[in-house]
Amino acid sequence: MSRVRWSFLGLDLRALLFLCLVIPSGIVGIYLHGQKITYFLRPLWESPPKPFITLTHYYHENVSMETLCRLHGWGVRDFPRRVYDAVLFSNEVDMLKIRWKEMYPYISQFVLLEANSTFTALPKPLNFALNRDKFKFVEPRLTYGMIGGRFRKGENPFVEEAYQRLALDQLLRIAGIEDDDLLVMSDVDEIPSRHTIDLLRWCDDIPPVLHLQLKNYLYSFEFLYDLRSWRASVHRYQRGKTRYAHYRQTDYLLADSGWHCSFCFRYISDFIFKMKAYSHTDRVRFSHYLSPKRIQEVICKGADLYDMIPEEYTFRDIIGKMGPIPHSHSAVHLPLFLLENADEYKYLLPGNCIRESG
Question: Which residues cross the membrane (predicted)?
Fold first, then answer.
């Protein structure tokens, strides 16, 4: 009987140990790493999107436009199309200047809309209006608009984002866009190369909508993440049909068409602002993610600000991209204005990861 009693007692102790230690540890683990587990298991519940039809991109500065158009299978026009560049603006002052300097020779009209609120209903200053003196070079070709935010806290941030993009459609009509003009749709930090814009404005029979494959950088041009940024697009405008959007709109993708430099800020305060302001604010799961010291360490490592598993669709791609991004020492084929003003924008070039506090 005593052996039986000790057996039951041992069972009770093991059960108690399980209840008091193992289950709470599991709950804490899920709380801390549940998002990582979900992203890692993504291939089990979500299939990869349909592959793009990638168009080979031909370019050399000494090859004629007629030859370049022919290499792409397109004709050449007697005169170039007009080109409109339209952006929603938040606080990326340096990236906007680099973008507009890169595209300036071939843009007919620059269209910019900013709001006094973020997508997450936080109030924000009109940063472009405050820095407008830095953009005098585009003033004769600039259509500027301001929209009041709706400040609906708790609403899905993508609703506010869609509201602002709809307002940008209206601003484009005010700017005078017409059928068959080219419209560049991309975020400020998604920068098409100037020769890409020149090619598309001169060539005939280009697709009505064409996504641009951009080199995908994080924090600066030191950390090349991959070559798979695709959301930027160019449209042959059609009144009543073309709508400003930032999602997939065609299967066609023009290779090697520019640069996407995400979270490429001069000041730590701008990192904190964007982390709290943009549509994926749910990724800030813990308050210490916003610590300036932590953010600086993450930048110099090339690690993820949100401590997330890569957003991929196969285990091979997920495992291949886990960990910090390797440092690059190449500053070849970057935006011209950036290299011409390297001292001013040194923080965007390899070997300069330290940021100002702001």
Answer: 15-32
What is the band of 44 on the pLDDT scale with cuts at 50, 70, 90? confident
CA angle 74, 180, 247 (to 5 degrees): 90
Question: Length of the chain, please?
Answer: 358
End-to-end CA distance of the chain: 75
Give 300's Cβ-side CA count (13 Å radius): 10
Task: Determine phi and psi for 146, rounding to 5 degrees.
Answer: -125, 135
For 53, phi then psi, to 5°, come to: -90, 100
Q: Helix, strand, or coil here: 277? A: helix
How many whole angstroms separate alpha carbon 107 and alpha carbon 104?
A: 5
Residue 204 pLDDT level (bands cut at 50, 70, 90): very high
Instruction: Name the one residue in this structure whose structure tokens are 């609906």.
Output: 152
Cβ–Cβ < 8 Å for 258, 95: no
Are 258 and 191 a contacting pair, CB within 8 Å?
Answer: yes
The tokens of 81 are what?
A: 């199309």
165 to 158, 185, 281, 283, 312: CA distances (angstroms): 10, 10, 19, 23, 27
CA dist., res. 358 & res. 61, Å (int): 39
Predicted confidence at residue 251, as pLDDT, reads 98
Whole-structure pTM value: 0.88
SS (H, E, C) 10-29: HHHHHHHHHHHHHHHHHHHH
SS3 109: strand
Nearest-10 Cα torsion for 141, 103, 176, 66: 120
Phi, psi of 54, deg, nearest 5: -85, 125
